[in-house]
Write a structure and sequence with these properties.
Layout: E1 19-27, E2 31-38, E3 41-48, H1 56-69, E4 80-84, E5 92-96, E6 101-102, H2 103-113, H3 119-138, E7 141-142, E8 151-153, E9 159-161, E10 168-169, H4 188-191, H5 199-214, H6 224-233, H7 246-255, H8 266-280
Antiparallel strand pairs: 1-2, 2-3, 3-5, 4-5, 6-8, 7-10, 8-9
Helix pairs in contact: 3-5, 3-8, 5-7
């Protein structure tokens, strides 16, 4: 099984002995996320939970995430630093450490403080995400799990797309059929196991925007499965609040169209938010930051 492991150059091969996990951050699907050190540099370390014999599916997913990350290089995509893949050692993916945390946690600070989420910050986050997603799509990669919990930011307010555990490269046919992601953010064609492409990420981006605007979980009053059925069979969509700016209201409706071909591209969305950012005072006025009480 491990004969399929990719060969890394010196810049990407990491020895377990070079890593020092220091602070546990989160637990995922058979993984743990730690803040730690790699040769005295602060990094994020994603550890595979130890098992005596890694099954084929877990090994494939682990290697696939590495092979996607090592190809990416963009200011709005989480930076890959290396991987520990030697048999007999802990398996780990090492990335840059984003000292702000998740955008989901950032949004929660506004809810807890009873403050509305500033439009300027919404625009800044949205533009960073769109730029990262545009880069992924240009490189034929679909993220497939776009939501606030999978976005990270640093203390300078820069937001990056993260968590490529279910991301996939579009093959020559140009579409996929596997169901993956998180039901509440998932496009109807993905839920229904129909062919889909990068426009599935556009749908999820619309739900992400709604999540940031409202500070709520989509379809919180029903189970994830009930939400999925409603989206596919009844055309259910999140309720857009009346306070939502008109241009975002229109964008959400465009992103959530059942016909994926009628949804906008990330390029078109980027142009919209670039114009609005200029009207709001430019990048300096739109940086991501937690609420101040």
């Amino acid at each position: 099984m491990f004969a399929r492991l990719p060969q890394y150059d010196a810049a990407h091969a990491v020895l377990w002995s070079e890593l020092k996990p220091e602070k546990w951050l989160a637990t995922g699907n058979q993984t743990e996320l730690w803040r730690g050190l790699h040769k005295d540099e602060v990094v994020a370390i994603k550890l595979m939970n130890y098992v005596p014999h890694m099954d084929d599916t877990r090994a494939h997913d682990f290697l696939h995430e590495i092979n996607i990350l090592r190809r990416l290089n963009h200011p709005n995509v989480l930076g890959f630093m290396g991987a520990c893949t030697r048999p007999g050692e802990r398996f780990a993916i090492v990335t840059e450490f984003m000292d702000g945390g998740s955008v989901h946690a950032l949004r929660t600070t506004y809810t807890e403080a009873g403050q509305p989420f500033p439009e300027a910050m919404l625009v800044g986050i949205a533009l960073d995400v769109v730029r990262g997603m545009e880069y992924l799509h240009q490189n034929n990669i679909i993220h497939r799990d776009l939501k606030a919990a999978n976005l990270l930011y640093n203390i300078n307010g820069l937001v990056k797309v993260a968590d490529f555990g279910v991301a996939r490269e579009v093959v020559s046919t140009g579409s996929m059929t596997a169901e993956t992601g998180t039901y509440r953010w998932m496009a109807p064609e993905v839920i229904a196991h129909k062919p889909y492409d990068a426009k599935a990420d556009v749908y999820s981006f619309g739900v992400l925007l709604w999540e940031l605007i409202t500070g709520e979980v989509p379809y919180a009053d029903v189970s994830p499965m009930q939400a999925a059925i409603g989206v596919v069979q009844r055309g259910m969509r999140p309720v857009i609040p009346g306070t939502c700016p008109a241009y975002i209201n229109e964008l959400l409706r465009e992103c959530w169209k059942t016909n994926s071909k009628a949804r906008p591209s990330m390029n078109g969305i980027s142009a919209l938010f670039e114009r609005r950012m200029a009207e709001l005072g430019g990048p300096a006025a739109c940086k991501a930051a937690p609420a101040v009480r």
